[in-house]
Specification:
Blueprint: E1 16-18, E2 28-31, E3 41-44, E4 51-56, E5 61-66, E6 79-82, E7 90-93, E8 101-108, E9 116-118
Antiparallel strand pairs: 1-4, 2-3, 4-9, 5-8, 6-7
Length: 119
Amino acid sequence: MALSRQLFIDDRDPSITYDPGSQGASPWAQQGTEGEFMGTTTYITSEGASAEIRFSGALITVYGTITSTSLRTQPDDPMTEYFLDSDTPSSYQARSTNNVQKQVQFYRSPSLSPGPHTL
């Protein structure tokens, strides 16, 4: 019988690599409030940033926070793209509301063959 378990990884986990970007200063910032997983959140301050996680498993899900329309600094709702094992990207278009939305599912992979993967 195969064992199945879930592993939750916080955005501050060292297994996540945040690309410093090409604009000189890092586009990444960190904060966090109650209601977010482990009270933390990592976000970008400019477009074009990327992060990578290497994992071993058969599924991965990404959750995030969507800022309220009154706190947003960009005119458009945020969009993220996910590349799993260098395959065709999957996009998520956030829908801002008047309230901050926490622990929103941004991405869920299809079932994967057990083993190493990169997102």
